[in-house]
Design goal:
Number of strands: 5
Number of helices: 11
Largest sheet: 5 strands, mixed
Helix content: over 70%
Structural class: alpha+beta
């Protein structure tokens, strides 16, 4: 950016320098043109006054009338000032200074050495003043003065022409420089825009898109570290942050999975302890009571019968409690028999379709079991459904579970702690749970669980 900005500054600055030089050249040309006009006007005025000298003298010599000498008198008065002005105007050009000085000397000589004596002679002896020699001398002197003035005028015109050509060249150069500067600026700006787009805008947009995906939960996103400077630092920092989040998420998922496994193992241990310990003792006590009852008197038999019935009821409650903590059929038979048992116990008719040919990891089977159990319980309590469809099938790497009823719908997972708990259990195993429950169209729970843990 600094390099491109510097190039643009140099290019634009050079263009302005050329334009300033051109403007100054045009201003100088304008001043020269004005000066040339003044010099030419003054030179022509001197020529006109010299002509008035010759005309006034000639008319007086021919007619002898003093009044015809007035133009000569006016010209004689004005010429010194005009010639001095002419010398001052051409003072910066040595050649023209010499020409103006020569013209001034010739005019002075014509006036003092020829014109005044000729006028005095015409007053005393008109015929002698009209002689051919006198007239020829005057003509020659006037011609010499005109020649010097013409040379000065041509020199000034040549200077004006040269200056105009120089000005035209500067103007053309300025136009070329302006066009090249404009074209170069456009190319540089376009190149700068392309560079900014490729080096800054595009990487930032890609990083922003990846940030949105990261915020949406895709922790595997990474950006290519192809930028330069701060952009590369941004990309590297983003990838580091995404990696840290991914590692933290993986650690969290592993921790949640360990918690779920630990909870399931605890449930199985409690169920096993109840089955192998308390249940067996209660069964043994019930058998003992029945044996004592068989050999006792009638009154005592009735009391023992009440005790035996109480022990049997307690045993049923313990079995129900053990089944709720962790169903033994799930540990022994797997997800298929466990789901069919839930279907048989459901108050709502259940149609079951299971396509699982092998045992799955225990956490996966437990999660699927509790999803079906919670879904059937909710259907019986809230859905007012006539039938429930349960589908369990196995793909290459995932267990897909669907529980769909034809009830009233309108279930909101945010308002039910059971569904929230199921979602946590499924998420802890890296799976997803989706609840679709439009009002009046039933409820569908869709679960996807990865097989590899």
């Amino acid at each position: 950016m600094v390099t491109a900005s510097g190039l643009l500054m140099v290019l634009v600055g050079s263009g302005f320098v050329v334009l300033l030089i051109s403007v100054q050249g045009l201003r100088t040309s304008e001043q020269q043109t004005q000066h040339t006009g003044i010099v030419l006007a003054n030179a022509h005025q001197v020529e006109s006054l010299v002509s008035d000298l010759a005309t006034g003298q000639r008319d007086f010599v021919i007619t002898g009338q003093e009044k015809l000498l007035q133009p000569w008198r006016d010209a004689a008065v004005q010429l010194p000032a005009q010639t001095s002005t002419l010398e001052r105007l051409v003072a910066d050009n040595p050649d023209q200074v010499a020409q103006a000085h020569e013209a001034n000397q010739r005019i002075t000589s014509y006036l003092l050495d020829y014109s005044l004596p000729a006028i005095e002679a015409a007053r005393q002896d008109p015929d002698s003043a009209r002689s051919v020699a006198v007239t020829a001398e005057g003509t020659n002197r006037i011609a010499a003065i005109g020649s010097v003035l013409d040379t000065l005028i041509r020199s000034e015109q040549q200077l004006s022409t040269t200056q105009q050509q120089k000005t035209d060249m500067i103007a053309n150069r300025a136009v070329v420089a302006a066009v090249m500067g404009l074209a170069g600026t456009v190319v540089l700006v376009l190149g700068f825009a392309v560079y900014l787009t490729r080096a800054i805008v595009r990487p930032v947009r890609v990083t922003a898109e990846m940030a949105n995906r990261l915020a949406a939960g895709d922790l595997a996103v990474r950006v290519p570290e192809t930028g330069v400077g701060e952009i590369r630092t941004l990309e590297r920092t983003f990838n580091t942050m995404a990696g840290s989040l991914g590692a933290a998420s993986a650690d969290l998922a592993a921790s949640r999975a360990r918690i779920v496994r630990s909870s399931d193992e605890t449930r199985r241990r409690i169920e096993r302890d109840l089955h192998d310990g308390i249940q067996q003792r209660l069964v043994s006590l019930a058998l003992d009571v029945r044996a004592i009852q068989a050999g006792s008197l009638n009154g005592q038999a009735e009391e023992l019968d009440d005790v035996a019935n109480g022990l049997t009821a307690t045993l049923d409650e313990v079995r129900e409690l053990a089944r709720g903590i962790h169903p033994a059929i799930l540990s022994q038979g797997g997800i298929g028999p466990a789901v069919r048992m839930l279907a048989r116990r459901s108050k709502v008719p259940v149609e079951v379709r299971i396509d699982v040919g092998a045992r799955l990891p225990a956490p996966i089977e437990a999660a699927a079991y509790y999803v079906v159990s919670e879904a059937l319980t909710n259907t019986a309590k809230h859905a007012d459904a006539s039938v429930v469809h349960v589908v369990v099938r196995l793909t290459t790497d995932r267990l897909l579970l669907s529980v769909r009823d034809d009830g009233t719908g309108g279930a909101d997972p945010a308002k039910g702690s059971g569904l929230v708990g199921l979602d946590d259990r499924v998420a802890a195993l890296g799976g997803t749970l989706v609840v679709e429950s439009p009002s009046g169209q039933g409820t569908t729970l869709s679960v996807s669980l990865p097989i590899a843990l």
